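Lecture notes, unit on protein representations.

Consider one protein chain, 107 amino acids long.
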Amino acid sequence: MEEQEIVKSLAALAQPLRLQVFRALVVAGPAGLTPGALVDALGVQATSLSFHLKELTHSGLVTQERSGRNLIYRAAFERMNALIGYLTENCCGGEACLPAAAQACAC
């Protein structure tokens, strides 16, 4: 991913409701969710949700597909994995990031 795309993705997630929406879509998996299901699950107003879905879609982290009369939103897992990969690409210079004692902890 290009650095500008990384910044756009991180900026989209840097808002509490958008982060909640994205996490809900990740949990839903490939089946995705309709806006109505997201409104019910998150207890937000439809107009507010619409704005945040637009921002997540614009960032490339969420896809939208029409299925009959419904819109289905899904997490863009390839984009999410690319973002995570970019952030961890040079993690700790190839060394273990946590001390051995912390790695053994099942916290």
